[in-house]
From TrEMBL, chain A:
Keywords: Membrane, Transmembrane, Transmembrane helix. It comes from the Bacteria. This is DUF2809 domain-containing protein. The chain crosses the membrane at residues 20-38, 50-71, 78-100, 112-132.
Automatic annotation (TrEMBL), chain B:
This is Integral membrane protein. It comes from Herbiconiux daphne. It comes from the Bacteria. Keywords: Membrane, Transmembrane, Transmembrane helix. The chain crosses the membrane at residues 6-27, 39-58, 70-89, 96-119.
Amino acid sequence: MAHDTLVKPAPTRARGIGRVLIVVYAILALAATGRSVYEIIAKFDQAPFAYTLSAIAAVVYIVATVALIAPGPVWYRVAWVTISFELVGVLTVGTLSLFLPDLFAKASVWSWYGMGYLFIPLVLPVLGMLWLRRTR
Amino acid sequence: MIEWFTIVQVVVAVAAGLLCVVLGLAGRVPNDLTMGATALVELLLIVQLVVAIASPAFGNEARGSLLEFYIYLISAVLLPIGGGFWALIERSRWSTVILGAVCLAVAVMVYRMNVIWFVQGT
């Protein structure tokens, strides 16, 4: 990996970028949770499928945030699982929302590849995976 | 919500966010300027909270869901506090970038609050 030579003299830098990543994850977790709580309280019956998905996504973002912060090999694996789940989720739901818009008449976090969230849900898992690979 | 105040707030949050991200990437640790910019963003959020609470008494009712509005507003109020504490505890350039990320997130949330108050439900 070409980065290896860069990582050695500045090991704290990778960790530093990782911290920015964790904060963005935390913000997204907060946004997804807030939205999901509101949807379930106020209008769950309008689109139960999309809103259930929102709630699952919110929980997964919270777990991913914790897994990125917590040390140890178990959390490392948890981070991989949750982040992979997010990537699969945003790609699947994003594609479904394009072809079956009725199912997602009310948007979830992942609808249209996370467009309502500036595509951050699409970009973040990829950055997360790159970071995980680098810190192992 | 008052529209011109909200616009000012979004502009300030975006400017503060860009300032912090740029200075952070340039290697600056959190200083009075970046912490001050974040504090200003927080101050405007507190003013916004007071405005939102007082508005209905003056006939300025939200068109959209008040519950959704307040979930956004309370979350937004907490963000600069969290980022600010982080910056006080860890004095690194990345803390400055984090301040910027927080301010930009606040800008997006205030914009969304504006949509809920003035557009949603019409």
